[in-house]
Design a protein that fits this description.
CATH topology of the largest domain: Aldehyde Dehydrogenase, Chain A, domain 1
Strand content: 15-25%
Largest sheet: 7 strands, mixed
Strand order of the largest sheet: 15-16-17-14-13-19-20
CATH class of the largest domain: Alpha Beta
Number of strands: 23
Shape: globular
Structural class: alpha/beta
Distance between the termini: 64 Å
Number of domains: 2
Radius of gyration: 24 Å
Length: 515
């Protein structure tokens, strides 16, 4: 199985010229995607998409109106009938053609993702599109395997069940992994025979349009995958729409609560949500410190810290704290920040200037609250040929001597800010690790097999790792406890969230009536 770190070496040198060729490329005007084609929105409104590396304009995007959302839902309902009538094997073949097209166009899509998100091309070319295609391939294999059960009642009667599609899924994506999240949501929905109306984040909407075209080119019936653009207002149109049967949402916990309320008040829609986190990594005194330090780096600075499962609370046994800090400082000094289209860069800007201000404000809060700043926190170090003042940059920042009450420890920052907290014993650290309203992820580093499993079993989190961090393969159900989500994405279990069970009783004997 490929791990996250296996993908780090970057893209081939031969691609460097392709990627660095034009960091100001624009896609001009982006429309909606309805009925298997690009169409103009009826609203007349537009919004801009900005390259976070240099502030340049990437595209203008048409804003969907209520009329457009109604059109998308009607199109999806028609397309879903055609799609659901196909056999699982027929759906599988179309999905696999989409997988092949995604992989053929990996470099093109990765460059677009880098321009829009600011993430290094070494990352987007080896992770974002790749893992999205993996999810589609995984669920394409499961599409023909969706089956019911048979339950004997007595000699003359039995019950059988069918797993049937829900209908139309309204999917709302986040800005950090645009094409991957779109694939994660579309793959189980399509495998189960549903249609999708997808709303990408207004910050990173570009690659999903390419995905929609790929689905059409692969043979997906018109209307089965539609794209509407806009901000939270368009998301609210989807959650409140009575023609939508399910909402799948990835984003912030507060927004997730509003999504759930709207889905319930409109038509009692089924809801799957992957929300925020403030995940603990626990490094015990017997841990392999180099391994743990490498994992802590990946769990805080990969994607410039913009990953929901990041280990932003790193609990370190007091006996190894000083040595662990030194290993982290050494690794942070090796970070290569710069033009994210450069294959040698491994640290890019944040996704937007608005988000930059949020992250920088939390760094200042950490200083004010008394955390010790070990490195970062004072702006980007200038380097030859690189002007960090033009982009949405935040430095890789390491705080130590943190306490559980500090806001940088309690609240989700979603940026490159690591907080170190010392602990003395197992019971203490488990209690502190669980003292949060979130429960998305957790991890343990120790050479003791017993301690590893004992600790993981007591941690209140839906995604857990032992002596590793961050991999979320398509086979692995991912989702959170507490305010970190509802339901799961990936894995076989996710198909339960995209189907509904119909029970049928068959009676072969006489019918008994009391009348």
């Amino acid at each position: 199985m490929t791990t996250l770190t296996d993908n780090l070496p970057g893209v081939p040198t031969a691609l460097a010229h392709l990627f660095l060729g034009d960091s100001h490329a624009t896609l001009d005007l982006q429309q909606l995607y309805l009925d298997g084609k690009r169409v103009d929105a009826s609203s007349g409104e537009r919004f801009q998409v900005i390259n976070p590396y240099d502030g340049s304009l990437l595209a203008e995007v048409q804003y969907a109106s209520q009329e457009d959302v109604d059109h998308a839902v009607a199109s999806a309902r028609q397309g879903q009938k055609v799609w659901a009538a196909m056999t699982g094997m027929q759906r599988s073949r179309i999905m696999l053609r989409a997988v092949a097209l995604l992989r053929e166009r990996n470099d093109e899509l990765a460059k677009l993702e880098t321009l829009n998100t600011g993430k290094p091309i070494a990352e987007t070319a080896s992770v974002d599109v790749v893992t999205g295609a993996d999810a589609l391939e995984y669920y394409a294999g499961l599409a023909p395997a969706i089956e019911g059960t048979q339950i004997p009642l007595r000699e003359s009667s039995f019950v059988y069940t069918r797993r049937e599609p829900l209908g139309v899924v309204g999917a709302i994506g986040a800005w950090n992994y645009p094409i991957q999240i779109a694939c994660w949501k579309a793959a189980p929905a399509l495998a189960a025979g549903n249609a999708v109306v997808f709303k990408p984040s207004e910050v990173t909407p570009l690659s999903v349009m390419k995905l929609a075209e790929i689905f059409t080119d692969a043979g997906l019936p018109d209307g089965v995958f539609n794209v509407v653009h806009g901000d939270a207002r368009v998301g609210q149109m989807l959650t409140a729409h009575e023609g939508i049967d399910k909402i799948s949402f990835t984003g912030e916990a507060g927004t997730g609560k509003r999504v759930m309320a709207a889905a319930a008040s409109s038509s009692l829609k089924d809801v799957t949500m992957e929300l925020g986190g403030k995940s603990p990594m626990i490094v015990f005194g017997d841990a392999d410190l180099d391994r743990a330090a490498d994992a802590a780096m990946m769990a805080n600075f990969y994607s410039s810290g913009q990953i929901c499962t990041n280990a932003t609370r790193v609990f370190v046994h007091r006996s190894i704290k000083t040595r662990f800090e030194a290993k982290l400082k050494e690794r942070i000094a090796r970070i290569k920040a710069g033009n994210p289209l450069d294959p040698g860069v491994n640290f890019g800007p944040l996704v937007s200037f608005e988000h930059q201000q949020k992250v920088l404000s939390y760094i200042e809060l950490g200083k004010q609250d008394g955390a010790t700043l070990l490195t970062g926190g004072e702006g980007m170090d200038p380097k030859e040929g690189e002007d960090f003042t033009q982009g949405a940059w935040a430095p890789a920042t390491l705080f130590t001597d943190c306490t559980d009450e500090m806001r940088i420890v309690r609240e989700e920052i979603f940026g490159p800010v690591m907080s170190l907290l010392a602990f003395d014993d197992e019971d203490e650290v488990i209690e502190r690790a669980n003292a949060t309203r979130f429960g998305l992820a957790a991890g343990v580093f120790t050479e003791s097999l017993n301690r590893a499993h004992r600790t993981i079993h007591r941690l209140e989190a839906g995604i857990c790792w032992i002596n590793t961090w961050g991999e979320s393969p398509s086979e692995m159900p991912v989702g959170g406890y507490k305010e970190s989500g509802v339901g799961r994405e990936n894995g076989i279990a996710t198909l339960d969230h995209y189907t509904q069970i119909k029970s049928i009783q068959v009676e072969m004997g006489p019918f008994q009536s009391v009348f």
